[in-house]
Amino acid sequence: MNKYYDLALLKMPQQALADLVGINRVTYTNWENGKREPELDKIVELATELNTTVDYLLGNSDINLLDTSKKDIQNLTKEEAKELSGALMENMNTIFEAGKEKFNMTDDEMEAMKVLVIKQFLKETEENEKNDSSNP
């Protein structure tokens, strides 16, 4: 796993990181030492638990998109916004693929799940904007 990223930089004990995704410490150590590769669903779980994206965790991006603030997003150029949007979509698709494999879902079930996730996201965004406007 260390060829992709170095979680030791988090200064978390291996046991704590292993516990986050429900594996034993030896398995996690083998990931770090490159002796074994984690399953995609475990990478997604670890990224979720660490509040980061799969791309950031795997070293495919230098930016943790989940650390991007509303102000940062509002100040993006069109090019940067397009790049951010693409990266988020790619990350979301990776998560959906892991779910599809783990739960043995059909393509139709996955499409329905994507619609539900997007609807929930839009609902929460709308609620957050209402709360922000009512709290000056």
Q: What are the salient characteristics of this protein?
A:
globular; mainly alpha; 7 helices; disordered N terminus; 136 residues
Secondary-structure blueprint:
Elements: H1 14-20, H2 25-32, H3 40-49, H4 54-57, H5 70-74, H6 78-103, H7 107-134
Helix pairs in contact: 1-2
Explain how this protein is built.
- Helix 1 (14-20) packs across helix 2.
- By secondary structure, the protein is mostly helical.
- Helix content is 65%, strand content 0%.
Gist of the model:
The chain has helices at residues 14-20, 25-32, 40-49, 54-57, 70-74, 78-103, 107-134.
Q: What's the total helix number?
A: 7
Q: How helical, in percent, are the residues?
A: 55-70%
Low-confidence stretches: 1-5
Mean pLDDT: 79
Q: Tell me the Rg in angstroms.
A: 17 Å
- The succession of helices and strands, N to C, reads HHHHHHH
Shape: globular
Taking the sheet with the most strands, its summary is: none
Strand content: under 5%
The termini sit apart by 46 Å
The number of E-state strands comes to 0
Structural class: mainly alpha
Oligomer: single chain
